[in-house]
Specification:
single chain; alpha/beta; seven-stranded parallel β-sheet; six-stranded parallel β-sheet; 30 helices; 44% helix; globular
Length: 758
């Protein structure tokens, strides 16, 4: 019960003193709802408990990676609700991604704090805008523009400015940056200069496109996602009655990942809060990695200045990573400079010792990818689940070589950023089947002999493609199986936690999880960019491609941009719980000039390197493995490749930048001179090879590569190897067959000893 004066009671700290603190990660999938408010606090460490008990006044939580920040703030909300101090409907928790908001809703539900709103900034703002628009403006809210790119393209065309695909994407990002920093088109060039921002085109041209884009939106009565925030800010500023209505509804605010707020989001937050001080913010300046979108850690770092009486709690006990991983992360930040570095948190690992980070240098990118895939296969064989392994890289274009290498090694993988779990077709079909079986009960013959819940689920999902053994290789069939297998595992865990649970209970649990976007784990190695990995964690993490020009990225010019790249690497390192591998390749292709250098950020941290940091690093430990050795020794002599030069369309001569067009060696809209008959023969051969290898067709050659071969009709190894998607490795494996097919010769089918006439 709450204290008579309205202050929360302070439970005895016996839980901590008697070693009862529970880890911040790897919590039970289906924990029992705490019976009492005090039970909500059990298992929190002293600092997390301080957060949970600080229910009044401004609160700032500085939370390092892996220190249980989401745990602390969800227990804070749950304790306040369960103790009767906070009313659920008056609490608004905001964060930046649907996944994070879904996780927060799921945790609050498990703690018995239902009714609390946990949303992204845009989701919360859109709901309010839809509700108040008729009263504030009249009529219906303009239609929301889901994607800006098409309208930006039209705007550029009307300004007689030609943009290729990459430039179009960059221009769209610039418009988004301008809007979240509350910069109008006329002020954009000056704002770019003031921010020392490296604009992708002439700022005057971009301002022109931006102005036309805004005009077209007005003409067509549409708004974009940034307008949602801008319009709501305008309404709350102009209509005191509506602002008071919102403040009457929401009286307690929690903001997660506060280091990522933009000036526009901060302005909206100020209007939501008003002159009150019931605000709790959580963040880590060392994890600021979205400044290119307008995010700034200044609001976090200035919080105590704006709120002099604020309670500030620092979370530094790292429950996620081993001392070896934490040691490297701390060492990396010890070399940092700038304001965020002045407020860095020194993490203290709470885990037992683990293996040292492994640093590996490779001769070329294919060798790096192949060796990484082999090491991942070995980890899986040693008992590490595929879903607890990740390969992280700086840019998405680096993923293809790892997709191929994992497919060649027979390792399942998933690309981060794919569609949401509960929106997958097979998951929706499975939900419909389980719901039907639950309604039919024992009248469904499919459930005959299936006594327990898990057996019933396996029986139902077996009609949708689930089998006791996974299909070979990767691709769509394996992805579908992995989704269904995740549901089977969820059912097994649910039954273990809720003995006697029925199919109806499981369907209800799935519905609640779908509403909260609280997805189960899909077993496949995760491939993701470092930005997409923020907020996630794995037992084993492979950080690849760590060379100058990629880490830091080549266009990071200013000191602050370089420091943000360092923070991005810090985020990558702190995703690992136990196993951490850092690698780089000295050249892009086999036989290429070894001109690359490992990232400067590891200087003084990896063995054999000299410290170059601003503040001096601490030794990283671990042995360095010159990984080019065995793989290079077994490699056949590489076909000599010319130094890379700009790839130009072989039809119109335009420089190509899009990866797909570079594979075709022509613009998508330029006419194709493909030999259709040759393409069909190559297509049939690829299908036979894929069947022989037990892998999807694209693991042999992608459609783009196959099309490029049929268009160029190579006659020599030199002509074939330069086609994007071939390379030396596939040249050795498939080159003889492909050149024979292109020459109209006969290729032997190894699957049954027969020959195929081509």
């Amino acid at each position: 019960m709450p204290h008579p004066c309205g202050q929360p009671p302070r439970p005895p700290p016996g839980t901590w003193q008697h070693g009862g603190v529970t880890a911040a990660t790897h919590s039970t999938l289906f924990p029992q709802v705490p019976e009492t408010p005090d039970a909500v606090l059990e298992g929190l460490d002293p600092e997390q408990r301080e957060v949970a008990l600080a229910l009044h006044g401004p609160v700032c939580v500085l939370a390092g990676a892996g220190t249980g920040k989401t745990r602390a703030i969800t227990h804070r909300i749950a304790y306040g609700v369960r103790a009767g101090i906070l009313q659920p409907a008056t609490v608004l928790a905001v964060t930046f991604t649907n996944r994070a908001a879904g996780e927060m809703r799921g945790r609050l539900r498990q703690l018995g704090a239902t009714g609390v709103q946990a949303r992204t900034f845009h989701s919360a703002a859109l709901r309010q805008l839809q509700y108040f628009w008729p009263k504030a403006v009249g009529g219906e809210l303009p239609r929301l523009l889901e994607r800006k790119v098409q309208l930006v393209s039209e705007s550029a065309a009307r300004c007689q400015i030609r943009l290729d695909r990459n430039e179009l994407r960059d221009a769209t990002s610039e418009i988004e940056w301008a809007k979240v920093t509350q910069t109008v088109p006329a002020d954009y060039p000056a704002a770019v200069a003031k921010a020392q921002r490296d604009a992708p085109r002439d700022p005057a041209e971009l301002a022109q496109i931006y102005s036309m884009y805004e005009q077209l939106k007005r003409d067509r009565s549409v708004i974009d996602f940034e307008d949602v925030l801008l319009l709501l800010v305008g309404i709350l500023q102009d209509r005191a009655d509506i602002a008071e209505h919102v403040r009457g509804q929401y009286q307690h605010f929690v903001v997660d990942e506060y280091q990522d707020v933009s000036p526009l989001q901060q302005r909206l937050l100020d209007l939501w809060v008003g002159d009150r001080d019931d605000l709790c913010v959580v963040g880590d300046a060392s994890q600021t990695i979205y400044s290119f979108t307008g995010a700034t850690p200044d609001h976090l770092l200035n919080f105590r200045t704006r709120h002099p009486g604020a309670t500030v709690v620092k979370l530094v006990r790292d429950y996620r990573s081993t001392p070896q991983v934490v040691h490297l992360a701390n060492g990396l930040l010890s070399q940092a400079s700038g304001r965020a570095a002045d407020h860095r948190l020194e993490l203290v690992s709470q885990r037992d010792k683990g293996p040292e980070p492994v640093y590996t240098e490779y001769g070329d990118e294919p060798t790096e990818a192949e060796s990484t895939a082999r090491r991942i296969r070995d980890l899986i064989a040693a008992g590490v689940p595929a879903g607890e392994i990740a390969v992280l890289y700086r840019v998405n274009s680096q993923s293809e070589v790892y997709e191929q290498a994992l497919a060649d090694a027979g390792v399942p993988y998933q690309l981060r950023g794919a569609e949401r779990f509960f929106e997958r077709a097979e998951v929706r079909e499975a939900g419909t089947a389980l719901r039907g079986a639950a309604r039919a009960g024992r009248n469904d013959s499919l459930l005959d002999g299936a006594e327990d819940l898990a057996s019933q689920v396996r029986a139902v999902l077996s009609t949708k493609g689930w089998t006791t053994r996974p299909p070979a290789g990767s691709g769509a069939v394996r992805d579908r199986w992995e989704s269904l297998a995740a549901l089977v595992r969820l059912a097994e865990d649910f039954e273990a936690a809720r003995p006697g649970a029925t199919l109806t209970d499981l369907v209800r649990e799935l519905d609640e999880r779908a509403a909260a976007q609280h997805a189960p784990t899909v077993q496949g190695v995760t491939l993701a960019s470092l930005h997409a990995a923020k907020g996630l964690e794995w037992d084993a993490v492979f950080l690849v491609g760590l060379t100058e020009g990629m880490m830091p990225i080549a266009y990071a010019k200013t000191d602050e941009q370089v420091e943000e790249e360092r923070r991005l690497l810090y985020v990558g390192i702190t995703r690992a719980r136990v196993h951490l591998s850092l690698s780089w390749a000295l050249s892009r292709s086999p036989g290429g000039r070894a001109s690359r250098r490992p990232t400067r950020f590891l200087n003084g941290l990896r063995p054999g390197s000299a410290a170059s940091g601003v503040r001096g690093g601490t030794g990283g430990g671990g042995g360095i493995d010159r990984g080019a050795g065995r793989a290079a020794a077994n490699r056949a002599p590489a076909v000599e490749r010319k130094p890379r030069s700009p790839v130009r369309c072989r039809v119109c001569g335009r420089t190509l930048t899009d990866a797909g067009e570079m594979k075709l060696m022509r613009c998508e809209d330029c006419p194709s001179d493909m030999d259709e008959a040759l393409y069909e023969r190559l297509h049939d051969w690829r299908a036979a090879q894929a069947a022989l290898l037990g892998q999807p067709d694209y693991c042999v050659f992608t459609e783009k590569t196959l099309t490029a071969i049929a268009e160029t009709v190579p006659s020599t190894e030199g002509e074939l190897v330069v086609i994007a998607g071939v390379g030396n490795r596939k040249l050795r494996r498939f080159g003889t067959d492909v050149l024979a097919i292109c020459a109209g010769e006969t290729v032997r089918d190894e699957s049954d000893g027969a020959t195929e006439e081509t």
